[in-house]
Description:
Elements lengths: L4 E3 L11 H6 L3 E4 L26 E4 L4 E3 L5 H25 L8 E8 L30 E9 L7 E6 L2 H8 L8 H9 L9 H15 L1 H6 L2 E6 L4 E5 L5 E5 L3 E9 L10 H9 L5
Helix pairs in contact: 3-7
Bound molecules: succinic acid and fe (iii) ion.
Fe (iii) ion (FE) binds next to loops.
Amino acid sequence: MISPILTVPGAGQAGPASLAEALEGGAVLMFPDLDFPLSPFETRFTERPFADGKAKNVNIRGKTATLRGAAGTPEEQAALRALLIRYREFAKGLIARYLPEYGTAITLAGTSYRPFDVDRRKMSWRRDDTRLHVDAFPSNPIGETRILRVFRNINPEGQPRLWRIGEDFGSMAEKFLPRLPGYSPLSARLLAALRITKAKRSEYDHLMLHLHDALKQDADYQAHAPQADVQFQPGETWVTFSDLVMHGAMGGRYMLEQTAYLPVAAQTHPDRSPQRILARKLGRPLQ
Ligand code: SIN
Ligand code: FE
């Protein structure tokens, strides 16, 4: 089954009963008409990339919201940082309003500005996000945490963000799990001791990294696995668990993105997490 896109109508209209349940089941929630206006000064950020070009994206991180990877005058960089802080508040408000079940269990992580054309040419296969994948962070083990992302297309010229959406996580895992190397707690401890990882990599993190790589390296799977093309228009906002939903970004420029973390235990159905799906497929708890 291919992950569904669920359109959530504006205020006052009836939407699906529990959006959290739909998300946890692998849906992408698409909000067609949420307001997030740019000021006249800010429109420049969608006219050319204010990025130093060294990293894929510009972002703010942490309590201090330090801006990284940006370009422009000090005034412009301060305005870009303020825009990202405002987007973080917008995403926070969206989550509070539409996913109230998660309450205070959700924490907000990085916020990014993605001004560049999705372009596969310069990328190594591992960083090539045009290939269908689930998100996994190599140096930042997350264990019992879910990755929820809030995206918004801010392209000023009508250009959609083009995605591919793939099959459900369980079907994908069944094909790939038998090929993955076994987990070694000893090497996980070593990676942490050498500070290659920020914390000890759990078996879940190990499996997700190897899934991410195996998926991206399998040209036959990329070409022939169940998949659908999706377009997100300017002004649209979409939300998904990117550790669960198979996705690839195929085109478009100028997008905002907010990452949020949710403990598996805070889900309405923890058994629908990739953590529990993988354990069920292996027939044992993960280490
Ligand atoms: C990704 O998470 O793979 C990229 C999403 C995007 O840039 O549209
Ligand atoms: Fe991704």
